[in-house]
Amino acid sequence: MNIYSVRALYFYEMARFFRTLFQSIASPVISTSLYFIVFGSAVASRMGEIEGISYGAFIVPGLVMLSILTESISNASFGIYMPRFSGTIYEILSAPISAFETVLGYVGAAATKSVLLGAVILLTARLFVDYHIEHPIWMISFLVLTSVTFSLLGFIIGVWADGFEKLQVVPLLIITPLTFLGGSFYSIHMLPPFWRKVTLFNPVVYLVSGFRWSFYGVSDVGVEQSLAMTALFLFICLIVVWMIFKTGHKIKA
Amino acid sequence: MEKDVISTQSLNKTYASGFRALDNIHLNIYRGEIFALLGPNGAGKTTLINIICGIVNATSGSVKAFGYDIKKEYRSARSLIGLVPQELTTDMFEKVWDTVKFSRNLFGKPNDDALIEKILKDLSLWDKRNSRIMTLSGGMKRRVMMAKALSHQPDILFLDEPSAGVDVELRRDMWNMVRHLRKTGVTIILTTHYIEEAQEMADRIGVINKGKLILVEEKNELMKKLGKRQLILTLKKPLHVDLEDTPLNISADRLELTYSFDSNAEETGIAPLLKRLNDQGIELKDLRTKESSLEEIFVKLVGRNS
User: Do A15 and B98 touch (CB under 8 A)?
Assistant: First the structure.
């Protein structure tokens, strides 16, 4: 393991995060606060409780998940796309660093940013609603696993994209709708049976459900299923990244 | 100790578009030399460098650096190579010190502030160490690229068009830096459009055209073999006699005679020519010799292979 190289990539990416701290932190925090004001305060007063949890507290895991998914993808995709776009990737390709180490540096940094962001959003949520975390170890595990998995997906998107607009396509047109329809703001048990079955094809349901279980011990699907789906998605992303480096697809001519 | 630091065997590269950038390249670079790779635009110079450095995949063939296969033993091979690319590609928001330090770490080396300080001082970048790269001039940015490439103390340094877009003073500084590096044992491979640069610095020259390496030769041998020497005679009065039977070029005003000869030949023909001019009462005002430049040889070689 070329530890100096991994550290160099990791801290380089983290430095970029701290250079743009306001955009990196303030933007998701402000939008999450707005969600809490609209859903947590205005709507919650008319919603009552879901599965014994106040609506404001019920949406906390979903909102964290919404930010984690989109930010992991954005951070990782931008991280690898910029060197490709500017040409600075020559230095990484010519360095004595393996594909695994490169991914570890980039994805590690993107996932770290997401975990930090998740923590900041949880602290922000505390200002609006009272929530508790029943299984803190599982909560952290889900948070880290999801951050890593979606950072890997972001890395893949950053390699696939050949323009800045493509970087936005997946987070905006796929991930955000799937998260909204994945039980972030409701329990899928509230849906009619047909739509409940359809929703089960949405992978985000499993992520939100597992994450919510770690908070309140209640879930839409079994926690084992949530873990299995996350692990499966992680595995698929790893295979795709491995193939990218094996073939040099879009990285090397 | 192995003589070759870079060795390519049957190296081919065909891009996805079908463009054949390299055609069966066999090339050996010797330890401690300055090797200049010359060729017109699109000849394959950068592709060759990029394959050796691991940036582009070869279609077939093999490359070894210090005996290490660049694919199978890429860690060992790449850690010995530094590259200054043609384009000024670096993160413009970073500070000079940080980007050079990043490059050193990226190549698996621990921090060495004293070394980075020395490199920056040698390249007259010390005063700019805390400046963001975007605030530097083009010449300064090129120095930063050089500092990044030197930060991990490579044994082989590739300079892809190092003088492109830099002023004369900086070009001279770079040449001095390159000579200094060679003295410390670094092997240098440079591509250049400035043939004057190759003529000034290179020990050996390689000429590449349309993906084919058409010649590799010691610079002095090349100049001797392919270069022509000319004797130029300036007359006091316009030539009044017929010298059509001699291999002389006579200027339109008949005041200058040019005689081409092979300086390696036993008989250059100069003595009989001067005797004949003297016998015919032709008085000389001036006499000088001229050697072909590398540029003339290059143009001739590439023209012949086009």
Answer: yes
Q: Which fold has domain B4-224?
A: Rossmann fold (3.40.50)
A-chain residues near B87 (CB < 8 A): 87
- Output the average pLDDT for chain B: 86
Write out the residues of chain A at the interface with chain B, using a CB-CB cutoff of 8 A.
Answer: 2, 4-5, 7-9, 12, 15, 19, 86-88, 90-98, 248, 252-253
Which residue range(s) make up the domain with A225?
A: 3-247
Contacts of A92 in chain B (CB under 8 A): 106
- Inter-chain contacts counted by CB atoms under 8 A, chains A and B: 71
**A253 belongs to a structural domain:** no
Q: What pTM value is reported for the model?
A: 0.78
* Span A88-123, pLDDT tens digits: 888 999 999 888 888 889 889 999 999 998 998 888
Q: Which tens digit of pLDDT belongs to each residue from A186-244? A: 788 788 888 888 888 888 888 888 899 998 888 888 888 888 988 898 899 898 888 88
CA B263/CA B272 separation, integer angstroms? 15
Radius of gyration in angstroms for the set of CA atoms belonging to chain A, rounded to a whole number: 19
Residue A252, domain member (yes or no): no
CA neighbor of A250 nearest in space, from A121, A155, A170, A122: A155
The alpha carbon of residue A75 is apart from the nearest alpha carbon of chain B, in Å, by: 17
Provide CATH 3.30.70 ranges for chain B.
229-291
Interface test with B, best of A16, A94, A244 (most B CBs within 10 A): A94
B83, B51 in Cβ contact below 8 A?
no
Query: Nearest to residue A248, comparing CAs of A84, A116, A123, A109?
Result: A84
Which regions of chain B carry the CATH code 3.40.50.300? 4-224
Does this complex have an ipTM over 0.85? no
**Using one digit for the tens of pLDDT, what is the confidence trace for B58-101?**
999 999 999 899 988 999 999 999 999 888 787 888 899 999 99
The CATH class, in words, for B229-291 is alpha beta
Closest C-alpha to B205, from B194, B193, B218, B196: B218
